[in-house]
Amino acid sequence: MAEGAGSLPELEESFRRFAIHGDSKATGRDMTGKNFAKLCKDCKVIDGKSVTGTDVDIVFTKVKAKAARVITFEEFKQALKELAKKRFRELGEDEALEAVNALIARKEPTLVGITKSAKAGAVDRLTDVSKFTGSHKERFDEAGKGRGKAGRENLVEHTGFVAAYKGKGTYDQKVKGSK
């Protein structure tokens, strides 16, 4: 095999990266079926026509040891040889293997939709404090900033009036105004 695209050290590095993906206890020396399927999908070995996810699972089962649940790098190379024959039928065996190796070399697992936080229209509507009503409305000021403890607790004013009394401070005016 040429030392260019898909060389053995680059292939082994991709194998190690996919082998440890999603498993904190993984050593990188063997790969699970789930990670092998992810490698094939992310590196476009699975094309949906000549190679499908089912084909990848069958090849994985064929190359692994009987009672094992993982494959080593040597078994991985054998699996790629099997998939190369299916994926690149028009090429010879060596050219097909080189083409598959070129697809996989220098690749790493992709993280799809994991780091982004979804902010849908419903979330915006539900977190818009200008639309809050009732007791929830009291927790925010006009600018939409939270009031903290003052917004959560009923603070007692010792004025002698009932809470929410609108005529507060008008007694003296009424009594003195009538005399």
Structure write-up:
- With 179 residues, the chain is mainly α.
- It has 9 helices and 2 strands.
- It has helices at residues 8-20, 33-42, 53-63, 73-87, 93-104, 121-126, 134-137, 149-152, 171-178, and strands at residues 30-32, 70-72.
- It has a two-stranded antiparallel sheet with strand order 1-2.
- Helix 2 crosses helix 3.
- The radius of gyration is 34 Å and the shape is rod-shaped.
Task: Please bin the fraction of helical residues.
Answer: 40-55%
Measured by DSSP, the beta-strand proportion falls in under 5%
Kindly name the structural category. Answer: mainly alpha
How would you state the average pLDDT, rounded? 80
Total strands: 2
Shape: rod-shaped
Strand order of the largest sheet: 1-2
Largest sheet: 2 strands, antiparallel
Order of helices and strands: HEHHEHHHHHH
Counting DSSP H or I runs of 4 or more residues, the number of helices is: 9
Specify Rg, calculated over alpha carbons: 34 Å
Distance between the termini: 112 Å
Uncertain spans:
1-5
